[in-house]
Amino acid sequence: MPSRLIPAAIAGLFLALTGQALPTPKVWANPSNSVHIRSHPCGGQAMCGTVVWANDKAKADAARGGTKNLVGTQLFRNFKLIRPGVWKGKVFVPDINKTFSGTVTLVGPDKIVGKGCLAFGIGCKSQTWTRIE
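Below the sequence we write its predicted structure tokens.
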């Protein structure tokens, strides 16, 4: 699950950002539709992402890592625009109870690609997330 959550969660946050003012909160689904994240402003010009829904398997994976209540957990923290269409911040992975660096890149009006790395660009994974209504 860590390899799915890191980029998935990152990606779930930021499609609505286009370098303009902070957007209205949006909800994003990971490719397997096992986790939904709501993006929202958090301090200054940063964006964060909170789990608003997760299936039973995602909840069980998180619980094994020490996160008892996956829904309501802020997985994405302090994501800031670093260049047009690209954001950088921190991602909490509840399955292993660790926080990592991550990026999100806008690839279309309803799609983003999230990439998360364990450390120093090693162990990176990416996923495409889709905005849901």
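Residues 9 and 63 are 17 Å apart (CA to CA).
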